[in-house]
Amino acid sequence: MINHSYILYIEDDQSMAELVRQALKLRGYSVVSAQSGQQGLSMMRERKPDLLLLDLMMPNLNGWDIYRAVKTDQTLANIPVIVITARSIANDRTVIADLPPADDYITKPFDVQHLLHSVQNLL
Fold first, then answer.
1. What span, in angstroms and rounded, lies between the C-alpha atoms of 111 and 37?
2. Euclidean distance between CA atoms 56 and 66, whole angstroms
3. What is the C-alpha to C-alpha distance for residues 10 and 33, in angstroms, rounded to an integer?
4. Mean pLDDT of 71-95
5. Out of 32, 79, 108, 113, which could bridge 86 as a Cys pair, Cβ 3.0 to 4.6 Å?
6. Helix, strand, coil abundance in the chain, percent, nearest 5
7. Higher pLDDT, 110 or 12
8. Does residue 13 lie within any of the structural domains?
């Protein structure tokens, strides 16, 4: 099955990024990963993804900083975002209170089928 959707996963844990990349690749998605928020934002500005998968806990530029940058940039704001993190969203509601909510929020460890279903629904 070939799917022409382009997905960017910003994740500093390379084993997690590879697990997700392989699971989505088996479904025909094109997935690239960035190891830092700065790299991810640069990649998005070079080629706008159809979907953004986003870890929250990263050094330097954390996931919510990236989310804010995406949702306040008119050229990127309409990209659907799935947050994939070990954090509880209850702790973060005030951080993004002035922004639209993420399209989905998946807590690690997660069921790969849940991720695949969410990606399919958003694309």
1. 25
2. 9
3. 6
4. 79
5. 108
6. 35, 20, 45
7. 12
8. yes
CATH code of the domain containing 38: 3.40.50.2300
Report the pLDDT value the prediction gives residue 15, as an integer from 0 to 100.
92
My answer on whether omega of the bond before 109 falls inside 30° of 0, hence cis, is: yes
Q: pTM for the complete prediction?
A: 0.88
Residue 52 has a CB neighbour count (10 Å cut-off) of 24
Give the range of the structural domain holding residue 95, as residue numbers without chain letter: 6-122
1 within a domain of the structure (yes/no): no
Torsion on CA atoms 61, 121, 22, 47, rounded to nearest 10: -50
Domain total of the chain: 1
Count CA atoms within 13 Å of residue 112 on its CB side: 12
